[in-house]
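ok so I'm stuck.
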Amino acid sequence: MTPPVSRGRHNRKKKRTVRRRLPMRYLLPSVLLVALLAMLMLRGYVHSEILADHRVQAPAPTTQVPDDVLEGGPVIDARAAGGQAKSLRIPDHRIVLTFDDGPDPVWTPRVLDELRKNRAHGVFFVTGTMASRYPDLVKRMVDEGHEIGLHTFNHPDLSFQSTSRIDWELSQNQLVLAGAAGIRTSLFRPPYSSSSDAMDDRSWPVTRYIGSRGYLTVVNNTDSEDWKRPGVPAIIERATPRNGKGAIVLMHDSGGDRSQTVAALREFLPQMQRQGYEFTNLTSALGAPSAHTEVSGLALWKGRAFIGAVEISERVTGVLVVGLAAIGVLVMVRFGLMLLLSFLHARKVRRQDFSWGGRFTRPVSVLVPAYNERECIEATVRSLVASDHPIEVVVIDDGSTDGTADLVEAMWIPNVRVVRQTNAGKPAALNNGIAHARHDIVVMMDGDTVFEPSTVRELVQPFADPRVGAVAGNAKVGNRDSLIGAWQHIEYVMGFNLDRRMYDLLGCMPTIPGAVGAFRRDALDRVGGMSEDTLAEDTDVTMALHRDGWRVVYAENARAWTEAPESVQQLWSQRYRWSYGTMQAIWKHRRAVVERGPSGRFGRVGLPFVSLFMVVAPLLAPLIDVFLLYGLVFGPTGKTVAAWFGVLLVQAVCAAYAFRLDRERMTHLISLPLQQILYRQLMYVVLLQSWITALTGGRLRWQKLRRTGVVEAPGGTTNRRRETERRPVA
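replied:
not stuck anymore, here's the structure
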């Protein structure tokens, strides 16, 4: 599960620019996803994982096969009109070595080396799957004078296939030869074929059809059975023709370990040459024109395009596999760190003797930036009024047009002030609030968030330690009853709880959430306050505080209840801004990597951690789901499902532990598997779109999310009016 980076939700009025970009936000990730799937599909096709048919026909009667074919030679010519066939034999003292199923990157070069060393030639019956992946070997075969024959593209038993599938196998195989060597061939060998006397009523119709398409069907006289790996002497014995007869010898240069085949050739070639045999191409042995025809024009370019696409798919898939391995390691490392460091953090802060240096009781200022928060602001203010810590409340109205400021003033609550300003954005509103704050500790929250009575007190206790410059609270989803709310609830508890504990111990807390955070005013002054340089002003200022040498810690009991987006559109807008803003903040503080002192320590520890686990890892995480889908469709299905459930189990363990630490009900975890399938994909696409925006130099403005004001703290007390006498006064 990709943890969110908490953001404030105070937004500017300008929405029109983003709306014009909506179609593009879906288009670019969709194009990339389609391209990725296309590459995987092509890779699966050329690896016989797609459209492959591994059935092999059982022997059948031979009543339909002409006697001349059954008793004839290993070359069957059925090209004549009417399907009349004749068989051809190899002249005496001629051997046509044939090699099936290649080319193979390991064994084919060694076979070619032996042939070249002995000035011998042969015929390579290549499959399209292998030839498309290793076109240079096909080119070498042709350049060194060997003949090429078709062995189909995917190596199916053609007796099971329709004529359209047979045509497809032939045309795709020819397409590969055109792209690899600029030729087409008239030679064909059926997969799983043997000698001519093995032709039967199921294979004979295929042979006739192949002949009608202009091909010579080539079987064999002697079968070395090298695929059985019987040993070099046995291979030589089975390959040797008797009594000086000519022969077509069947061998293999692919499909497994062919070291015995290479060793056998090393002995067989000179041995037979000493007996007066010549190793030649098939057409040379038959005294016929070459089987090769040069390809040009569109056919040539189509072949080259296909070979190029296969090469790209192989490279892309290789990168994806490396990426999948990397994300697997990152996911396990992150989960391991989260569990271990979260346990250590909880053990540390929950000890009875744990203290930040004394009880912090001084009054603080609570800043509430608000823009058109009429639905939520009253509940927000009343939750603060109920605080058990002395506070002043400063509501900064950022040019609201819905009467937000008037509503707060009409509440007539002492120690709650309204500061009005023209619409200038959240950072400006917060800086204005800081200027009007009376106390040296300022708490910041969103206008759609409610606090529990103890939230402020718990949030400011770490300031008893003078080294602490900021404190992150525990933001929780208030509207978790809907499915999308429940998914965000899991994300918040797991991401915020475990991640913040981990980052706390590592000393590189990346973000003080806009919904619930506190700052030492002196620390803010030293870093220049809230910056408008990024869309993630909370992440920006947190990183600035780290670089200035301040500690940033996590207060688990400072709970704030916020209203999460309730539609995919709103969720997209929010997370898009979060992701893009985080990237901006990382880029802004990149020089910390080479600086000295506290800035350098954060730059060399915090920035790599944040970049790796919050930007890079989530971007690579979709590979898990892409390969899951690929494995489910094309196999191995069992192992794929087991691996995916293994990852899900690890996530469930982490989520359950986070829920236990936060004392949350486990029932919401029922939706975790569905969250991984649906919700997480949306987060991936959002992050991808953020990357695209960053790389293309795009600009993104604030957007106002629609609020309903339904969130209240546990117990439903936030919307009730409280007597002012019960409020602590600052």
